[in-house]
Amino acid sequence: MSGQSLAWPDLLLRLLGVLLLAAALGFAATKAEDRSLESLLPLWAPAPSEFIDLKGQLVHVRDQGPSDDPLPIVLIHGTSASLHTWEGWVAALSPTRRVISFDLPGFGLTGPAITGDYSIEAYSAFVRQLLAHLKIERAVLVGNSLGGEVAWTVAADRPELAAGLILVDASGYDFKPEAVPLGFYMARLPGASYLSQFLLPRQLVSSSVRSVYGDPGKVTPELVDRYFELTLRAGNRQALHQRLVQMRFGNHIDRLKQLRLPTLILWGERDRLIPPANGQAFARDIAGSQLLVLPGLGHVPHEEDPAASVAPVQAFLTTLKP
């Protein structure tokens, strides 16, 4: 080889250097450190947000509408979401109804569960404790995805608490998704979950949110910003990993047949995470329930199109008595 040619060891060293440089640049581009709760408050917890100390767990809560409403509406969000996902419904309902929304432990500004327990049983107990703290003896329980499973579990655990049930693309049954948000998939991988504590590409969050919309074009940069920043709340990334590892489906579904209360089931026609067939299963197993499929919408219809999805809710609420 001529004097100007590179020997293999030198070539390998240079290639390694290029790879390390690329990795360093990639790390710098995706590095995302935890955000303190205090740093997130100005943008994501303006009035009427408040924080309640619930047996050592600081809980982000909004309690809106007339305080004398005899039948408050309790909104429970899904995995990786926050109370903000319900803002469209709250705006429509709160002029005449008391509406309570909050961040579940592990998500939003509430942050990690102090117990490290993200089972449905733990979430059901949490909601019951929160309602007791707010002195709510009877309510309409509403939940999306994970929140839907929490809602119907609370209704099964404490039937006297639930005057009505609204399930929005709820979990509970086993299912085969057509598409899983990339963020969920990565969070379940042991190695990837460790790296996610330091790295969080914004594109990963954007892709995950778009995958749960019937029309991904409705996902705005501002919406991605919200999911991105609240995921960075200190401890939330590790909490997501723990929640997904602890997740179980179908292990208490027999309890659905015990429910005896007015129930509205809403399902996005284009839900690719939990298929509409699961909505039919809920309608089959909950006696007297009604199922409404929302055309063109995905897994979070209340967020994707608040006006279209809240209209049947308003009609359903008129049928309930305190």
What would you note in describing this structure?
The chain contains 13 helices and 8 strands. The chain is of the alpha/beta class and 322 residues long. The protein has a single domain, classed as Rossmann fold. An 8-stranded mixed sheet has the order 1-2-4-3-5-6-7-8, sandwiched between helices. α3 crosses α13, α4 packs across α5 and α8 crosses α9.
Fill in the keyword field for this structure:
322 residues, alpha/beta, Rossmann fold, 13 helices, globular, disordered N terminus
The CATH topology is Rossmann fold
Radius of gyration (CA) equals: 22 Å
Main beta sheet: 8 strands, mixed
Fourth-level CATH superfamily: Alpha/Beta hydrolase fold, catalytic domain
CATH level-two architecture: 3-Layer(aba) Sandwich
The total of beta strands comes to 8
| Mean pLDDT over the full residue set | 87
In a nutshell, what does this entry contain?
The protein is built from 13 helices and eight strands.
Q: What's the topology here?
A:
Elements: H1 8-30, H2 37-44, E1 49-54, E2 57-64, E3 73-76, H3 87-93, E4 99-102, H4 120-133, E5 139-144, H5 146-157, E6 162-168, H6 182-188, H7 190-195, H8 202-211, H9 221-231, H10 236-246, E7 263-268, H11 276-285, E8 290-294, H12 301-304, H13 306-317
Helix pairs in contact: 3-13, 4-5, 8-9
